[in-house]
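[User] At your convenience, examine this fold.
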Amino acid sequence: MQKIKEEIVSSQLLRENWARYKSFLEEQSVGFGELDEKKMSEMEELSCKYVDATLKAVDKRFKDDDIMSNFK
C-alpha cells in the first residue's frame, strides 16, 4: 500500500514538473520570438539608414566631381 502511494505521488510530481517545464518553454519561446522580430526590425531599419547614407554620399561625390570639372 505504501509503495502504491509513493508511485502515485511521484507520478503526480512528475506530471506537475512536466507541466511547469512545458509552460516555461512556451513562455521563453514567445519571448525569443519577440526578441528575434525586434532585432530583425532594428537590423532592417539600420540597413535602410546605411543604404540611404551610402546613396547620399555617392550622389554628393558625383555632384562634387561635376563642380570640380566646371572649374577646370
